[in-house]
Amino acid sequence: MNPHDLLAADHQSLRKQAEALRAAMEKGPKTLPRELDAFQKALQTHFKKEDGYCRVLDDDKRVADRGLVHQLRNDHAAVVFTVESLAIRLRKNGVNPDWRGRFDNLMKLFLAHLDQEDQALFPLGRKTLSPAELETIAAHMKSCE
Which architecture characterizes domain 3-144 according to CATH? Predict the structure, then answer.
């Protein structure tokens, strides 16, 4: 499978995990810490894969929309930080209105981020990346698992 298909499959899986996380939040706090931990681990692995993808795509600054790649990589940092913050807040205070608000804001950012990658980044990569570069990315992605 090529990197684009693998990353798109990751996106589908992450969307499902996000929904499971939301459902766990609504059901009660019993499974929420476990769901949040699984989501956090999946995100970290996925973002490592995408960082390798972006690094190769952004090599030699050949992407005309310089802001796109930088914004998406900054989103990764914001999402990782926010999920960690939510995990800490969950352990300390449980699910409260503040936690729910922060969670909702995270999901808005995260789902919009996935959409932007699917609709802008991956089509750009499909046009730009050579077969050799795709092989390099696939090897990097495999090393992240």
Answer: Up-down Bundle (1.20)
